Amino acid sequence: MKIVLTLEFCWCRSILRDTLDRTTASNQCAGYGATPNNQVVGVGSGSTIVFAVDRLAERVHQEKLNIVCVPTSFQARQLILQHGLTLSDLDRHPELDVAIDGADEVDTELTLIKGGGGCLTQEKIVAGCSKHFVVIADYRSNSKALGQQWKKGVPIEVIPMAYVPVSRMIAKCFGGEANLRMAVSKAGPVVTDNSNFILDWKFEQALNWKEVNTAIKMIPGVVETGLFVSMAERAYFGMEDGSVQVRDALVK
């Protein structure tokens, strides 16, 4: 089934103008346009997705749509339940019609850096199980090349016992440095939903991201990387002036 990816720009802006800031309105516009009826939808994580779920829930309840949602994280699961949407999982729905998620950075080829919120592995699994993967992002995530806007590096989920050798191997093979992500509200490192650690790799220069992604995943102890290569087919960016910029993946 071909996904209808149309935005109702004027209608959405007129409804939201008095209550939301411009970028928020644009994010909700994207959420409004990306999902038709009778779909299984992967729901991503992060601040931008909150707006998309708000709009999705509004459509579902107003138009009596049949939408089943598969979350990528505990946060996404709670959003689905709080909005009264139908919750499912990959056991019951191993193939999704569309996944909608945010991104920390998006380059001109729709290569993404994701995982700032620590949910990169689940996010990549859900995106990989979807027929279509759509990104909804703030204008600050829109970049010509990875690393131009997002300065915190590429998140890499690792088995706890392997974080030191993995960080050393990444620095040796690709340069830069891979540091253990430390928690803010607790002592010690961030622990993912999968009970793993996260390394944030600050690379020094643009690389062949497809090759780098494959090579890093071959290092023993690496669970997944935050590089999403050739996965997204469309990105919506909420701009400062309230408009929505749309970028499609290049057909190769």
Outline of this structure?
The chain is of the alpha/beta class and 252 residues long. It has seven helices and 14 strands.
Q: What's the helical proportion of residues?
A: 25-40%
Overall mean pLDDT stands at: 86
CATH topology of the largest domain: Rossmann fold
Strand order of the largest sheet: 3-2-1-4-7-13-14
* Total individual domains: 2
Order of helices and strands: HHEHEHEEEEHEEHEEHEEEE
Distance between the termini: 21 Å
Which blocks of ≥5 consecutive residues have pLDDT under 50?
1-23, 28-34
Q: Any idea what the CATH architecture of the largest domain is? A: 3-Layer(aba) Sandwich
CA-atom Rg in angstroms: 18 Å
Number of helices: 7
The major β-sheet equals: 7 strands, mixed
By helix and strand content, what is the structural category? alpha/beta
Instruction: Tell me the strand percentage band.
Output: 15-25%
GO molecular function, one term: ribose-5-phosphate isomerase activity
Family: Belongs to the ribose 5-phosphate isomerase family.
Pathway: Carbohydrate degradation; pentose phosphate pathway; D-ribose 5-phosphate from D-ribulose 5-phosphate (non-oxidative stage): step 1/1
Keywords: Isomerase
